[in-house]
């Protein structure tokens, strides 16, 4: 009696039906274990990949955030510097304007003082006796200072009448110049040697100008006793 081929093969290899069932169970168990292992490894690998991805994403986000913050801070700093520069320029402009206003005010006061002095000198020239005496003294000093022997003198047209009274110097022959001084000279004279090498301006306007220039520090201190902080850098 012939056996079925599977049973015969099983018996040939020492496997009966019971053994085949046990083998199948063991194989299924191994396969199941392998599937579980693969699933576990897959889950572990996925978890690792997810962790790496999260770390990478976090680092990238931090880098982006830091980069953006740095750019923002740089931009803010640039804007602050630009605003500060603009403010300093405006302050400098206002200070310069204030200084100019102070200068103009001081110059006006100085011009007013000069006008008052010129008016006083004009009034002085009306005192003929005193004015003539002063003119003669100044003329003698000019002649002796320069050692002149021949000279010409220019006077205001209104002062021509005093020429004889002031020109009598023993060592210098003085002639009246036909060209008269302008009224802006206030008074006084211009003395010039015959050869034109020596010219002495003794007009009252010139003496006033030189006198104020020499006295300028004292004049300004008197007119403006309070120190102006705008002059200090």
TrEMBL record:
Single annotated GO MF: proton-transporting ATPase activity, rotational mechanism
UniProt KW Ion transport keyword: yes
Cellular-component GO terms for this entry: proton-transporting two-sector ATPase complex, catalytic domain
InterPro entries for the chain: ATPase_E_C, ATPase_V1_Esu
Keywords recorded for this protein, A-Z: Ion transport, Transport
SUPFAM superfamilies xref list: V-type ATPase subunit E-like (SSF160527)
A Pfam family matched in the record: vATP-synt_E
Coiled coil location: none
UniProt cross-references to Gene3D superfamilies, sorted A to Z: ATP synthase, E subunit, C-terminal (3.30.2320.30)
Protein family per UniProt: Belongs to the V-ATPase E subunit family.
Protein name as catalogued: ATP synthase subunit E family protein
Organism name: Giardia duodenalis assemblage B
